[in-house]
Amino acid sequence: MIELIVLDVDGCLTDGKIIYSNSGDETKAFNVKDGLAIRSWINLGHHAAIITGRKSQLVERRAKELGITELHQGIKDKATLLKKICEERKIPLRKVAAIGDDLNDYEMLRMVGRSYTPADGSKHVKAIVKHVCQTAGGEGAVREMIEELFEVNDEVGEFLALWQ
Q: What is the pTM of this model?
């Protein structure tokens, strides 16, 4: 059973584009379908964490909206941080699923029980993950991962009951 999901932001929760306005503001687009699945995951009593290499107030806002309290930004070594989180929460790495799309996710993805990358993830990441999503980052890849995890955890009925 998977207890914790770990999410990368740019390229997974978003399409990887970073848009700056003339005034210097940054924008990102998050997929509402991913958000519904993440909220459902949390509502069923599971844990979710965001580990991202960049820092953004937009990510902090999105994490708060979704109820993700385990938010780590500006992280260079995601694998070491994930080990620490798992030790603190007493969750074995085999009970962790992670999604990442690029080389800064590589080591983290190699160590978890279930690893995912969006359809447009790096070819090097695709070579080591257990599942390449059919959808691209920011287009529902996180939703696809979570729906598969509900099947793995035998919780599809509970997931659907949240919305009936």
A: 0.95
Distances (CA, A) of 122 to 100, 137, 141, 153: 9, 11, 14, 28
**90, 93, 63: which is closest to 80 by C-alpha?**
93
The CA–CA distances, whole Å, from 58 to 13, 34, 67 equal 12, 16, 14
DSSP secondary-structure letter at 136?
P
pLDDT at 82 over 90: yes
152 with 130: CB under 8 angstroms?
no
Q: How far is CA 51 from the centre of its chain?
A: 8
Residue 24 — very low, low, confident or very high, per pLDDT cuts 50/70/90? confident
Q: Which helix (H) or strand (E) holds 36?
A: helix 32-43
Among the CATH numbers 3.40.50.300, 3.10.290.10, 3.40.50.1000, 1.10.10.10, which is that of 4-155? 3.40.50.1000
Q: Which amino acid is at 145?
A: M
Residue 84 to residues 6, 44, 97, Cα–Cα distance (Å): 13, 24, 15
